[in-house]
Amino acid sequence: MQFAVLTLFPELVQAVAQHGIIRRAVEQQAVSLACYNPRDYTTDVHRTVDDRPYGGGPGMVMKSDCLLRTIRDVRQSNLGRLIYLSPQGSPLTQAKVQNFAQESALILLCGRYEGIDERIIQLEVDEECSIGDYVLSGGELAAMVLIDSITRLLPGVLGHEDSAEQDSFAEGLLDCPHYTRPESIAGLEVPAILKSGNHAAIARWRKKQMLGATWLKRPDLLAKKDLSAAEQALLNE
Ligand code: SAM
């Protein structure tokens, strides 16, 4: 996956590739991350990247001339769809992340100030994507969320031991509880079944826990899921 990120704060975005799974993915060449700073595409001495809004009011708007030049340059080497991170976009879900992970390249545009000129959205943006119903100061954290959640789904990025298949949302359910040593913490014991060595029984217990956690914490997910007969029976037990 080729990520190109348009941002006024490239160091912030690059940090996502300096640690953990994404760093490993970059080293394995499963992903590449290139940042483009619209400030580098300005032509005035002050390298101005914002301007006052038509109609007045508080806040500034990202200047469109340098942004358009940046987009044009990015498109020379990245043929992916252009995603504008925006609180007005369609909300990011695991299903959307799975779809993004099928693509080979993506361009992520991070807004700042009051955002970008509406005409850039009309002319250049393929999709607006929000990471939730709240407002961030800039799109960088949202871009990093996208990069992280997509990268961990790419083939070969996660080892078997930290496979994404059983993560929350993968099957439309929340994940089951996890335990590691010691066997007892402040009188709370690891469930005996997990030490039984009976893999079928453990798998069944885990599925029941997933159903139970989803029923308790996110009944909205359960309502949307098409439960198999076996899952329905487990839930009713
Ligand atoms: N005036 C804009 C509005 O109310 O729709 C908000 C601008 S916000 C202060 C600056 C930038 O942060 C946006 O252009 C966008 O790129 C990013 N941003 C803010 N909240 C976001 C969210 N929930 N999801 C994705 N990006 C977000």
What features would you describe in this structure?
- It catalyses: guanosine(37) in tRNA + S-adenosyl-L-methionine = N(1)-methylguanosine(37) in tRNA + S-adenosyl-L-homocysteine + H(+).
- This protein has 237 residues and is α/β, with parallel strands linked by helices.
- It has 2 domains: 2-151, Alpha/beta knot; 165-236, Trp Operon Repressor, Chain A.
- The chain is built from 9 helices and 9 strands.
- It starts with a strand and ends with a helix.
- 24% of the residues are buried.
- Bound molecules: S-adenosylmethionine.
- S-adenosylmethionine (SAM) binds at residues 85-88, 110-112, 114-115, 130-132, 134-139, 142.
Outline of the structure:
It is built from nine helices and nine strands. It is of the alpha/beta class and 237 residues long.
